[in-house]
Amino acid sequence: MDAQALAVARAVKGFMPDAEGLALHEAGLDGGRVGPLLEIGSYCGKSAVYLGAAARERGTVLFSIDHHHGSEENQAGWEHHDAEVVDPRTGRMDTLPFFRRTIEDADLEGVVVGVLGDSLTVGRHWAAPLGLLFVDGGHAQDVAMADYETWSGFVAPGGVLAIHDVFDDPAAGGQAPFHVWQRGVADGFRPLATTGSLRTLRR
Ligand code: SAH
Ligand code: MG
C-alpha cells in the first residue's frame, strides 16, 4: 500500500487496527480484479483509505455508503461514542466533514465515491455487480442482517464478501456480524481468511 495513504489510514480515528486494515487492503486487491468495491459504513474514512488504495491499484473505484449520523453504538452514552464528531448546531453526529478530509488527505478523491444516505435505501436502487462488499454499518442484529440481505446478491462470482467485528465468542463482542458470517457460509460463500475480527469469504 502506498506510503501516503497508509500514513493517513493509520492516523484517522476509527475502529480498525492496522493489521485488519492491511488485510482489508489485500481483500480489496483481490476483489478489485472482479469489479468495483463497496463498503457500508464510512465513518471517518479509515477503512475507505485501505480499500480506496486497493481500488486505485486495480484501476477501479470504491463506493462508500454512510448517512454519517452514526450507528446506535456510536451515540452519546454508548461504548463507541466520540464527542468530537457531534455537530454543535444540531447535537447530532456528523462524520461527513471528517470523511471528506480523510479522502482528500489520502489523495483518493478520484477513486473513493462517498454515497450519502441510508444503506437499505441505496441498496433498493442499486444494480451494479461488485468485486467486493464490505459490511461494517450498523451492528445491531436486524440492521446488519438487513444490510447482508440487501447487498450480498450484488457480489459477483469470484468476488469477495468482507465482514468486520466478527466475534464468535459472545464475551468478546456483539454477535450480529458473526451471524451474518454464518448466514454467508450457509448461502454458499466460501471462507477465505480471518484477521482479528475481519473475515473474508468468496462467492
Ligand atoms: N468502516 C468504518 C467504521 C464504520 S462505523 C471504519 O473503518 O472506520 C459504522 C458506520 O455505519 C457509522 O458511521 C454509521 O453512521 C454507519 N451506518 C449505520 N447504519 C447505517 C445505515 N443504515 N445506512 C448508512 N450508514 C449507516
Ligand atoms: Mg467495524
Quaternary organisation: single chain
Question: What CATH architecture would you give?
Answer: 3-Layer(aba) Sandwich
The largest sheet is: 7 strands, mixed
Could you say which structural class the secondary elements and strand pairing correspond to?
alpha/beta
SSE succession:
HHEHEHEHEHEHEE
End-to-end separation in angstroms reads: 25 Å
Briefly summarize what is shown.
The protein is α/β, with parallel strands linked by helices. It contains 7 helices and 7 strands. The chain has a single domain, classed as Rossmann fold.
What topology does this entry show?
Blueprint: H1 3-11, H2 18-31, E1 37-40, H3 46-58, E2 62-66, H4 96-105, E3 112-116, H5 119-124, E4 130-135, H6 141-151, E5 155-163, H7 176-186, E6 190-195, E7 198-202
Parallel strand pairs: 1-2, 1-4, 2-3, 4-5
Antiparallel strand pairs: 5-7, 6-7
The structure holds S-adenosyl-L-homocysteine and magnesium ion.
Description of the structure:
- The protein has 203 residues and is of the alpha/beta class.
- The chain has a single domain (3-202), classed as 3-Layer(aba) Sandwich (Rossmann fold).
- Helix content is 36%, strand content 20%.
- The chain has seven helices and seven strands, in the order ααβαβαβαβαβαββ.
- It has helices at residues 3-11, 18-31, 46-58, 96-105, 119-124, 141-151, 176-186, and strands spanning 37-40, 62-66, 112-116, 130-135, 155-163, 190-195, 198-202.
- It has a seven-stranded mixed beta sheet with strand order 3-2-1-4-5-7-6, with helices on both faces.
- Helix 6 links the parallel strand 4 and strand 5 (155-163).
- Helix 1 (3-11) runs antiparallel to helix 3 (46-58) and helix 2 runs parallel beside helix 3 (46-58).
- The longest helix is centred in the N-terminal third of the chain and has 14 residues, at 18-31.
- The chain is globular, with a radius of gyration of 16 Å.
- The mean pLDDT is 96.
- It binds S-adenosyl-L-homocysteine (SAH) and magnesium ion.
- S-adenosyl-L-homocysteine (SAH) binds at residues 14-16, 41, 43-44, 46-47, 65-71, 74, 95, 118-119, 136-138, 143.
- Magnesium ion (MG) binds next to loops.
